Structure formats: C-alpha cells, structure tokens
C-alpha cells in the first residue's frame, strides 16, 4: 500500500471536463490497495475573479471577510471532484481545510499552518474512500476561516503529506516540472530532474510561482520529497529534496526568476538616528507585511536625513502606504512614494557562494540589453535586481542565455 497526496492546481481543474479528467487520471494511476488524498485548488481563475469582486466593494481587500470569500473557490472544486470520483464508481468524500484538520494562526490572507490533525482524513481512507481536500484554507482556534496566501494549495498538500507521513507527495500542474526559468518567458529554459529544497525555496521566494515558498519550507521541515509534474502527461517531472542524487554536476546557477508582483516604496527624508528603521519595519511586521531589498541612502544636501527604499508585494501596497504615512507623520518625513511598475529579476544557485563573477555576469547581461538596475540585493544563494516591469521578460532571457547554453 502506498499513501499518496496528489495536488492539482487551478488550470488542471479549470472546467467540469478537466475535473472529470483529473478523477480519471487519479483512478488510472491508483492500484486498488493505494490510499489517495487529492488536494485541489479553485477552478481556473476563480480566485482572481473573487478578488476582483471584492475590489468592487472596497479598496481594503484584506482581513477576515476576504478569506471567507476566497475560500469558497476551493469548496466548489472539492465537491465537483468528489462527485466525479463517485460517478466513476470510486467512493470519495470532500473536506474543507477545517474538516481535514488544518489549523492556522490568525494572519488572514497569509495564514501559517500551525498544526494538522489528520485523523478524519485517515479514517475515511481506512473506509476505502478517496479523500478530496480543499487546498489554500484552514481555520483559526476561534473558528474563523483563513487562507494561506496565493498558491497556498501547494502548502496544504505538502503539510498534509508531512502530517500523515505519506509515501508520495505529487504536485500536478500545467508544466512538466521545475525549469531553469519560467518556460513561458524563456523557451530554452531547461527542465531539472532534481532541485534541493534550499534552491527551490529561493527560486519560489523570488518569483517562480510553480511552488509556493511555504510549501517548500514544509517539505524541508518534514523531509517530504515533492514531485512536481504535469497533469497532462505521464512523464516524470522534478523532485524537490534535501540533496542531489541523480545529477552529480555542481551547479553554480540553478535558475533565473522574475517577479512582477512587487512594488517599490520610498520613505523620503527620514531622520538619520538610531531606532528609526526599527520603528518603520516593526510597524510593517506587525501587519505581516514582508519587506525585501532594503536600501538606505544618505542625502547629499541634508546629511541629517536619509531615504529608505524597500520592496513589498503588490498585495500589501494599500496597507503599507497607510502604515508608512502614519509612522512618517510621527517622524516628520518628507513623503512616501510608491512605484508599482517594477519587477525583480534574480539568479539562484547554492554554488554561487565563493564563485566570483556571478554578479558581474548578471549586471553585464542587463547592461548589454540597456536595462537599468534600480536596486540590488544579495543572499548567500541569490542575487536580485529591481528593474522596470516592462523589461522583466527581456531581462530573464538575456541573463538566462549568459548562464545556460541556449540549445535545448
Ligand atoms: P497551478 O495552478 O497548478 O498551481 P501555477 O500557475 O501556480 O499552477 O504554477 C505553474 C506555473 O508556474 C507555470 O505555468 C509557469 O509559467 C510558472 N513558472 C514560473 N517559474 C517557473 C519555473 N522556474 N519552472 C516551472 N514553472 C514556472
Ligand atoms: N486558489 C488559490 C490561488 O489561486 C490557491 C492555489 O491555487 O494554490 O492562489
Ligand atoms: Mg500554484
């Protein structure tokens, strides 16, 4: 017997026909003794449409009511998929995140899973049923519905696999694995047989939406190997695991990513004294706003004030502006400027540490393409540049061609 968790993303269940095809595929691949949990996302662009509807009501598309709304998408697909299994002659039961035992903290819209109690899932499996679980959602101690951040069904799947000690965790999607760049942007991108948790986590954090970053973190924490593969083919995809086993080559650069879901925020004329950065970033942290690429620069004219520039996710712009303006008022700053037409391009690879010249190669590629770099940041395994959003795809292409030979 193999205990499997299989997750199917939005494009895999975009229509009733596709839902039926998913049910058929799961059944075809299943041996009679296998126990299968299927985690699903909302159909197609449902979550985007729900967000658009909320925007017609208010410009504050955050908080409890937002999660009440967003969680409905997955509830539609679990019910339809359970019906599809039953129709094909396989007993199945659908479960919301709560019914599957997914508990979270109270950070609405980007909640963290705190605990999973999978006893109901396990007992339905024991009864011979296929269990269909709603991805992306959980519940707080107080009984409020939460969601796990965009792409959060990946995290539901990996966390469930960890909690149930599943033998297999498969993420089925519309590409056949993890590539050295988004295959939609770079046609010569290369598919990987394997990638380590650390490198995948960094790629995901820097824009490779194929896996939600938190799902990779969960996989690492619970030692769950994750198989990313295509819904539409039988070919094996990419395994995310702790260390490489198949490809022995030492990789310097593993991938190039881009992220257009970023905004640049500049807090201008901040007093240059101890505790100020703390004040600003503590206020943002309290609101669960992730901050990246922080740069502090001295003004030529007035040396007693500085400008503070950093990036945030576009989804946090309204809240971050309100916080920055409020704290800014207390500090008597000159102003807050937010720019949304920016993108982050990054190179990722555990081998780059101690390998000089990576940054120069990347900056050289951007320079030759006439692309201006606005902000630079680095980690041990990545280098990121902030550029104009309309140049993002060109940037990924030129950087990718410098690090990877372009023949397929
Ligand atoms: P799902 O709905 O199945 O969760 P997503 O849209 O969230 O699918 O993720 C799959 C998409 O991720 C692909 O269609 C691809 O365009 C994008 N993607 C971005 N970077 C990468 C990468 N490095 N490798 C593979 N896919 C990537
Ligand atoms: N439906 C959610 C989203 O679109 C979660 C997911 O697809 O993983 O972000
Ligand atoms: Mg996804």
Q: How many E strands?
A: 18
Q: What is Rg?
A: 22 Å
The string of secondary-structure elements, in order, is EHEHHEEEHEEEHEEHHEEEHEEHEHEEH
Q: Give the percentage of residues in beta strands.
A: 25-35%
The top-level CATH class of the largest domain is: Alpha Beta
Low-confidence stretches: none
Total number of domains: 2
- Number of separate helices: 11
Question: What's the end-to-end separation, in Å?
Answer: 39 Å
Structural class: alpha/beta
Main-sheet strand order equals 3-6-2-1-9-11-12-10
In CATH, the architecture of the largest domain is 3-Layer(aba) Sandwich
Overview of this protein structure:
By secondary structure, this protein is an alpha/beta fold. The protein has two domains: 3-248, Carbamate kinase (3-Layer(aba) Sandwich); 256-407, VC0802-like (2-Layer Sandwich). 34% of the residues lie in helices and 27% in strands. The protein is built from eleven helices and 18 strands. The protein has helices at residues 16-29, 46-57, 64-87, 119-126, 153-164, 197-205, 213-222, 276-286, 317-331, 358-368, 392-403; strands spanning 3-8, 35-40, 92-95, 102-104, 113-116, 130-134, 137-139, 145-147, 168-173, 194-196, 226-230, 238-241, 255-271, 292-298, 305-313, 335-348, 375-379, 382-388. The protein has an eight-stranded mixed beta sheet, sandwiched between helices. A six-stranded antiparallel beta sheet has the order 14-15-13-16-18-17. α10 packs across α11 (392-403). It is globular and about 75 Å long. It starts with a strand and ends in a 5-residue tail after the last helix. Bound molecules: adenosine-5'-diphosphate, aspartic acid and magnesium ion. Aspartic acid binds next to α5.
């Amino acid at each position: 017997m193999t205990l499997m968790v299989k997750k199917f993303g939005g494009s895999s269940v975009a229509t009733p026909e596709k839902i039926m095809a998913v049910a058929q595929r799961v059944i075809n691949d299943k041996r009679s003794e296998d126990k299968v949990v299927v985690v699903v996302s909302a159909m197609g662009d449902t979550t985007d449409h729900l967000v658009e509807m909320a925007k017609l009501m208010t410009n504050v598309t955050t908080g409890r009511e937002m999660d009440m709304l967003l969680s409905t998408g997955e509830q539609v697909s679990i019910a339809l998929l359970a019906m599809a299994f039953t129709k094909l002659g396989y007993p199945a039961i659908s479960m919301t995140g709560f019914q599957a035992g997914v508990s979270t903290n109270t950070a609405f819209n980007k909640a963290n899973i705190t605990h999973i109690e999978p006893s109901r899932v396990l007992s339905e499996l024991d009864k011979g049923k296929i269990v269909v679980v709603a991805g992306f959602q959980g519940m707080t101690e107080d009984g409020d519905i939460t969601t796990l951040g965009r792409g959060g069904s990946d995290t539901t799947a990996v966390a469930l696999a960890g909690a149930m000690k599943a033998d297999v965790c498969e993420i089925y999607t519309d590409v056949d694995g993890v590539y050295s760049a988004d295959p939609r942007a770079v046609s010569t991108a290369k598919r990987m047989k394997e990638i380590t948790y650390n490198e995948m986590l960094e790629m995901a954090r820097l824009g490779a939406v194929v896996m939600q970053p938190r799902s990779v973190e969960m996989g690492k924490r619970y030692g769950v190997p994750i198989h990313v593969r295509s819904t539409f083919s039988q070919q094996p995809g990419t395994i995310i695991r702790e260390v490489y086993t198949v490809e022995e080559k030492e990789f310097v650069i593993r991938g190039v990513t881009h992220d257009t879901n970023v905004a640049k925020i500049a807090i201008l004329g901040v007093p240059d004294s101890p505790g100020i950065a703390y004040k600003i970033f503590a206020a943002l942290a309290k609101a669960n706003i992730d901050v990246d690429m922080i740069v502090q620069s001295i003004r030529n004219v007035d040396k007693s004030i500085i400008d503070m520039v950093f990036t945030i996710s576009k989804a946090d712009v309204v809240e971050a502006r309100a916080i920055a303006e409020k704290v800014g008022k207390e500090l008597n700053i000159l102003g807050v400027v937010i720019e949304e037409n920016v993108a982050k391009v990054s190179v990722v690879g555990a081998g780059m540490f101690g390998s000089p010249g990576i940054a120069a190669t990347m900056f050289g590629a951007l320079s030759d393409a006439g692309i201006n770099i606005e902000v630079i940041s680095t980690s041990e395994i990545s280098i990121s540049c902030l550029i104009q959003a309309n140049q993002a795809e060109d940037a990924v292409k030129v950087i990718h061609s410098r690090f990877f030979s372009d023949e397929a």
